[in-house]
Amino acid sequence: MKEFVYRWSAQDYSTLDKVPFIGYLTDSNRNILVATGFRKWGMTHSHVAALLFRDLILDKENPYETLYVPSRFVTDPSVKRVIQTNVDVAKHLVKGKLKKPTKKVDDLKNEEGAIVQVDGKRCGAYKDKNGKLFLVDSTCTHMGCEVKWNSGEKTWDCPCHGSRFAINGDVVEGPAERPLKQVQEGDL
Ligand code: FES
C-alpha cells in the first residue's frame, strides 16, 4: 500500500446564498472592504474582487456591486436561510449534549481520537503515537456546542460556527477565542 507522505487540507467559507461577499463590510462604514466566501472559486473571485474594489474606491459604477454586496442579508427581508441556519445550530447544540458517548479511553488505539465517557462525563480524548493521552472538555468555548473529532486533520471541530481546536485544546481557528479546557482524569 502507498504511504501518504504529505497531506493538504483547507477550510472553505461559504455565505448563506453561496455567492461571495465582495464590497464594503457595512453600508455605514466605507473604510473596510471585504472579500470572502469564495467556495473554492478563489482564482476567479479574487479577480472579480480586485476589479470591484478598484471601482468602489474610485467611485465608479460596477454592474456586480449589488450582486456581491456583503450587507444584502441585512437589507433583504426574506432571511429564511439565516433563521434556518440558526435552527441548525440550536439542533447541534441540543443533540450534541444528549448523545451519550459509547467509547471509553481504553477503547482508543494510538493516533485515534473520539468523544468518550470518563467517570460518566463527556470528554474529547486523543492518544498520540506513543499512547500519550490528551483529554479536553468537549464544550466549544464559543457558544457551547459539542465539538467533533476530525480524524483527517486531528482537530476538534465545532459544527455550529466552524471553530477548530488542536488536540491539547488550543484554538486553531475561530470564532472561538479561548482554548478547550484541558481535563485530567482525576479532575472528573
Ligand atoms: S459554538 Fe460557535 S463555533 Fe462552537
Automatic annotation (TrEMBL):
<keyword id="KW-0411">Iron-sulfur</keyword>
<protein>
    <submittedName>
        <fullName>Putative Rieske 2Fe-2S iron-sulfur protein YhfW</fullName>
        <ecNumber>1.-.-.-</ecNumber>
    </submittedName>
</protein>
<dbReference type="InterPro" id="IPR038010">
    <property type="entry name" value="YhfW_C"/>
</dbReference>
<dbReference type="GO" id="GO:0051537">
    <property type="term" value="F:2 iron, 2 sulfur cluster binding"/>
</dbReference>
<dbReference type="InterPro" id="IPR036922">
    <property type="entry name" value="Rieske_2Fe-2S_sf"/>
</dbReference>
<dbReference type="Pfam" id="PF00355">
    <property type="entry name" value="Rieske"/>
</dbReference>
<keyword id="KW-0001">2Fe-2S</keyword>
<dbReference type="InterPro" id="IPR017941">
    <property type="entry name" value="Rieske_2Fe-2S"/>
</dbReference>
<keyword id="KW-0560">Oxidoreductase</keyword>
<keyword id="KW-0408">Iron</keyword>
<keyword id="KW-0479">Metal-binding</keyword>
<dbReference type="InterPro" id="IPR005805">
    <property type="entry name" value="Rieske_Fe-S_prot_C"/>
</dbReference>
<dbReference type="GO" id="GO:0016705">
    <property type="term" value="F:oxidoreductase activity, acting on paired donors, with incorporation or reduction of molecular oxygen"/>
</dbReference>
<dbReference type="InterPro" id="IPR036188">
    <property type="entry name" value="FAD/NAD-bd_sf"/>
</dbReference>
<feature type="domain" description="Rieske">
    <location>
        <begin position="100"/>
        <end position="188"/>
    </location>
</feature>
<keyword id="KW-1015">Disulfide bond</keyword>
<dbReference type="InterPro" id="IPR014349">
    <property type="entry name" value="Rieske_Fe-S_prot"/>
</dbReference>
<dbReference type="GO" id="GO:0004497">
    <property type="term" value="F:monooxygenase activity"/>
</dbReference>
<dbReference type="GO" id="GO:0016020">
    <property type="term" value="C:membrane"/>
</dbReference>
<dbReference type="GO" id="GO:0046872">
    <property type="term" value="F:metal ion binding"/>
</dbReference>
